[in-house]
Amino acid sequence: MSSNFFLKGKSRQVHKRKSDIINKKKAKKPNAPNLENGHESSDSDLEIKQFSDADQSESDHETAEQKKLRLAKKYLQEIEKEEAKRAELQDVDDAIEKRLQRDYLEQKGKLRIEVASMYIAPSKNDIRFIRAKEHRLTLTSICLSNDGQYAFTGCKSGTFIKWGIKEKKKLGVVTFKTHSQFIKGGITSLALTTDIKYLATSDESNDIQIWDPHSLKHLHTFKGHKGTVIGLVFRRNTHDLYSASKDRSVKIWSLSEMAYVETLFGHQSPITAIDALTRERAITVGGRDTTVRIWKIVEESQLIFNGPQGSLDDVKLLDEEHFVSGSDNGTICLWSVLKKKPLYSIPEAHGSENGVPRWITCLTTLLNSDLFASGSYDSHIRLWKICDAYKKFEPIFNVEINGFVNSMHFTSDGKQLYAAVGQEHKSGRWFKENNAKNGLFVINFNLDK
């Protein structure tokens, strides 16, 4: 089998490319060699030699035992650095794990933090009273930012004020005179989103006003209620707003779209208070109908709890599974979502006057903990501790405050309690405490760790 490949013939002439010739001409000359003691040496050789010379000089001045000790110390330092890095990474992993576990338990309503036993009664120096000339009449409501930087207070004169907590001064004021097109009478409720993007206010009209909490610029007006809006609350970490009105309805609004969502009916008398946490649920009390209702918004259903006789005036969630309520007959009740009747009750929690129990004017809770506070007009704010696995609660101590305590709010870390106080009840003028002053009390707590 023949093939041209195996045939012998003249060798093929290879023609070089022109570019190859040019490149060959332009080839750089090699650098002059580094000479040391008559022979060539590279930079790396010099570095190695310098290191070895230093090591040699160090070892020349030490004995064998000293060298062993030095090397052992060096080895231990390296191990210490490695272990420190590992511990740091482990701490980060542990912190992430704890945070995820906390968020999961909080969402499920099973997070329990026992802090009530750490609280000590504050001294007079720990209580500060703040007045503002714009708050001519009784303060009715207060809300705090989640990061603890701002506080907003509203009063019956149709004014709300923005306070800087760190600056300890007023940062802005919106009055009835300057914003009469938006504010129609006294402020009845305030609510702030978790991300401090929107501030919602209600007054004696049927409307809800939305503001920018930073610039206090008016953004939007929600219309739809047929009675005075008495309660506002944002679902945590969202822009969903729940409003409660004297028209016996609860309405849901989306501030992301500035739109109405739906209306919930069920109460047989005007609603007096509303609250919400992370779940798509709202809790309300219906005053004289003596019921507490939990609105399951997604399931389009409601849970009904039967309260004590009288008017249920306030309700606050401890977590997603427990809450407390206050009545005009002076009774404070502890509830579970699993039972239709209170787990525990204390009648006349703030005593009585001329044989008539003092009303529970407001409640506040430290979320996911065993601590809550109640206010009335007996010149005291009372702090309570929940014990026996949420089966009962007991008093811890009282804080002397003169006047009607109409609204309260703990800071997120629980180290401060803000109380809006006035001469009159927030909903009317049945009584008047002439010795009281209209203003904001800031109570600092020293925790016993």
UniProtKB/TrEMBL annotation:
<dbReference type="Pfam" id="PF00400">
    <property type="entry name" value="WD40"/>
</dbReference>
<protein>
    <recommendedName>
        <fullName>U3 small nucleolar RNA-interacting protein 2</fullName>
    </recommendedName>
</protein>
<dbReference type="InterPro" id="IPR015943">
    <property type="entry name" value="WD40/YVTN_repeat-like_dom_sf"/>
</dbReference>
<dbReference type="InterPro" id="IPR039241">
    <property type="entry name" value="Rrp9-like"/>
</dbReference>
<feature type="repeat" description="WD">
    <location>
        <begin position="264"/>
        <end position="305"/>
    </location>
</feature>
<dbReference type="GO" id="GO:0034511">
    <property type="term" value="F:U3 snoRNA binding"/>
</dbReference>
<dbReference type="InterPro" id="IPR001680">
    <property type="entry name" value="WD40_rpt"/>
</dbReference>
<dbReference type="InterPro" id="IPR020472">
    <property type="entry name" value="WD40_PAC1"/>
</dbReference>
<dbReference type="GO" id="GO:0032040">
    <property type="term" value="C:small-subunit processome"/>
</dbReference>
<keyword id="KW-0677">Repeat</keyword>
<feature type="repeat" description="WD">
    <location>
        <begin position="222"/>
        <end position="263"/>
    </location>
</feature>
<feature type="region of interest" description="Disordered">
    <location>
        <begin position="1"/>
        <end position="65"/>
    </location>
</feature>
<feature type="compositionally biased region" description="Basic residues">
    <location>
        <begin position="9"/>
        <end position="29"/>
    </location>
</feature>
<keyword id="KW-0853">WD repeat</keyword>
<dbReference type="InterPro" id="IPR036322">
    <property type="entry name" value="WD40_repeat_dom_sf"/>
</dbReference>
<keyword id="KW-0539">Nucleus</keyword>
<feature type="compositionally biased region" description="Basic and acidic residues">
    <location>
        <begin position="37"/>
        <end position="65"/>
    </location>
</feature>
